[in-house]
Amino acid sequence: MMRFKAPSIEIKSANEIEAMRTVGRMAGDTLFKVNEILKPGISTEEINTFVHEETLRLGATPAPLNYKGFPKSVCTSINEVVCHGIPSPEQLLRDGDIINVDVTHIFEGFHGDTSATFYIGTPSAEAKKVTEIARKSLELGIAEVKPGGRIGDIGAAIQAFAEPQGVSVVRAFVGHGIGRTFHCEPQVSHVGTRGRGPRLRPGMTFTIEPMINLGTDECEILDDDWTAITADEKLSAQFEHTVLVTEEGCEILTVRPGVLTKSECFPDYFS
Ligand code: MF3
Ligand code: CO
Ligand code: CO
To answer: Within a domain: residue 270?
Structure first.
């Protein structure tokens, strides 16, 4: 007797995977170009205009624009903003800020979703800590992706790394299946238990996008109905890739053409 309904996680065909590679690379290219324009004094609206125009130049569509009413083409989340920050001409980047820029493109019906946290000028020790833990959390999550593994392995690895350092892992937002749909099964929690959750199979595509907070993991949503901030207004950082489960392990679909010089500044932080 069937006791449990198997979660319906789509397995992509070779053609669908190729389309996911194409759009993933496009989103990675755009994030790479964002790196070049970031500096103190620019507004998050300028980042939005740049991403919007760059997306269209590639022949793609910015997925955030009008998604469930989101008003802009990219999410820009500064300092205590956990995610879903709305670009604004009034909001200027300042020396010492950290900002997550989250780019999602749609091309030929498929989505590619990727983000990074960047340093504006010189970071504080706290900004470095939360950002480098978030970067390493994504890396460790990705390292768990292989056929036969479980979704829960990803969150377990991230939680085991991050929490002992006195930071928290956000529960309220999760990674997600992605393809023709922006957000679908499976949910990819960034905390969890090894061996639990759906089994990973070749052809699955999903995001891993850990949000790490310096203080509490609790979040509040601002009156704009989108911007999520930390309840204690301490710093938050996030990195995101769209990945594919392969026969061998994992392929990062949102690859970038080079180093994010304003993000990947401290490669030896944990060594
Ligand atoms: N890119 C975000 C994610 O990683 C989703 C943004 S939804 C939006 O899932 F509407 F805010 F754009
Ligand atoms: Co995502
Ligand atoms: Co995203």
So the answer is: no
Distance CA 152, CA 209 (A): 14
Centroid of chain to Cα 254: 10
Mutate to test the pocket of ligand 1, among 48, 104, 184, 227 (most ligand atoms within 8 A of CB): 104
| Number of domains making up the chain | 1
pLDDT single digits (tens) 65-114: 999 999 999 999 999 999 999 999 999 999 999 999 999 999 999 999 99
Task: Note down the domain range covering 148.
Answer: 14-252
Q: What pTM was computed for the model?
A: 0.97
239 lines ligand 1 (CB under 6 A): no
Contact in structure between 155 and 208 (CB atoms under 8 Å) = no
Whether 248 is covered by a domain: the verdict is: yes
Please, are residues 242 and 254 in contact by the beta-carbon 8 Å criterion?
yes
Give the whole-angstrom CA distance, residue 209 versus residue 189: 9
In a domain, 7, yes or no: no
Q: Which residues, listed in sequence order, are joined to residue 101 by a DSSP beta bridge?
A: 76, 116
The CATH number that applies at residue 19 is 3.90.230.10
